[in-house]
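Blackboard transcription, Thursday session:
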Amino acid sequence: MINYDWCAKAFRLHLMLPFLGGLSFVATSFNEPKVRIIGHPLIVIDPGHGGHDHGARGSSSLEKEVNLNVALRLRDQILLQIPEARVMLTRESDAFLPLPERTAIANTHNADLFISLHCNSNRNGQVRGAETYIMGLHKSGQNLEVTAMENGNQEDIGLDQLSMEEIIIFNQLQDQNLAKSRELAMLFHDQFSAVHPGGSRTTRQAGFRVLWQAAMPSVLVEMGYINNPSDESFLISDEGKDKIAKSLTQSLQDYLILRSRELATASIQPDISSGWRQ
Ligand SMILES: [Zn+2]
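(Written on the board underneath:)
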């Protein structure tokens, strides 16, 4: 899907580059230039689960509540720290929303990023730490465990379950977005490694229903293991939720600045025809 609004903006930027380049040179003469985020990228935040779907359980908390609480804090942080960005939540209350409708919201509004927030759970309760996932069809034992939990009663995704048309669409979306999704997931991973008391365990690909139809870079974040006592304490505390929201915001800002640099560079090429999502 081509975002024509972005094309127009990118083209206008292309026309202005000689002038902007001059300004940039002047700015660098005095101090390090502050890279600006181009345009007003839309970030859709998806608090996982809701309503009768509680998600994973801790000793005193439910995943759906932590997900929504962090999502609301994340929206506030983004609007505070990244004034150029726009933010939309797939749910703002304790409501059930089927998985396909969550990405449909992002697709309908031509979102530039889709972030699904979750808490993990493990049978023995000893595992802790954050994890980040991007869409893929890899089927390791660990991946199957977490996708089974997050996909709920909806089928796991395998190529054998998709029609030819769905596979073609899937491949197109993956080609367009996989590298950028991975880049954003790694930025989340780096931030979590610094601020999460349980650390950041990994970045993986897995077959999540909620990601697979996203027409933009998308990441599913497992913010910690809610059935691990130490992680649960972190996840339900105001301090912990604020740390998570701030670290995700920092990563999003870093990502948007990287993309803005690329867009500014691409716009001096003669075949400029794209925006954030291409
Ligand atoms: Zn979940």
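Lecturer's comment: Confidence is low (pLDDT under 50) at residues 1-33, 269-274.
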